[in-house]
Amino acid sequence: MKLFADYHTHTKYSDGQGTPAQNIDAASKRGLKEVALTDHGPGSIGIGVAKPETFITIKEEAVALASLFPDIKVLVGAEAAVISRDGSIDLPSSIIKQLDLLIVGHHPYYIPENLKEALFYTLPNLGLRFSRNLQEKMRNANTKAIIETIHIYPVDIISHPDLMLPVDINELTRACTKMETALEINTGHNYNKEEIVHAAARWGAKLVINSDAHSPKNVGEFTSGLALVKRLRFPVEMIINAL
Length: 243
Ligand SMILES: [Zn+2]
Ligand SMILES: [Zn+2]
Description:
This protein has 243 residues and is α/β, with parallel strands linked by helices. The chain has a single domain, classed as CATH 3.20.20.140. Helices cover 37% and strands 15% of the residues. It has helices at 20-29, 54-65, 93-96, 115-126, 132-152, 169-179, 194-203, 223-231; strands at residues 5-9, 34-40, 73-81, 101-105, 157-158, 182-186, 207-210. It has a seven-stranded parallel sheet with strand order 1-2-3-4-5-6-7. α6 packs across α7. The structure holds zinc ion (ZN) (2 copies). The site of one zinc ion has 5 residues, from loops.
């Protein structure tokens, strides 16, 4: 099995170290045919882009770079955060419309949609380690929220499911199958991803193996993800960036 694309990389415009050109160059040197620049949305505290329009700037930069890298297709997308229980994300639809790819994931630190969401959603998710009951309650709320998200927005990929905030993997996977959203095997974070592969196989959902590179040297670094799907014998044709 060979992966031809890395659909999740960060640049200096959010919390990555490389410029768009450096990420594209790294992907091209790895022999990839496609790479996506997917910086964090503006609502992510401390790690997001300065403002929604930054994605337009990145797009212009990617277009200008295209002639320098004729062998690779560059997509400009975003990794947006879920900011409310009803599935809102930290990007306006005017910007989403102009993106080539939309990734959404749960992240704990973001600007809540409003005060009510801060009290009933954002803050409880920050206190999970203090209470088992709260964990259960928030797992349900997080699952419901992100399923709403994939029904409202044209989400291509769910980043690192169940990593930063708990979700019900089976329920989310069933919704992803229905909405044709891919679940990510994220090689940039070390955590248990077996359950995601099992759930995708069980419910017929698509997977994508991404680096989530925050530095050009990690763009296209897929080793652990390839080993995992191979070991669990996950079908190649169900991985959207595999040949
Ligand atoms: Zn993320
Ligand atoms: Zn990321």
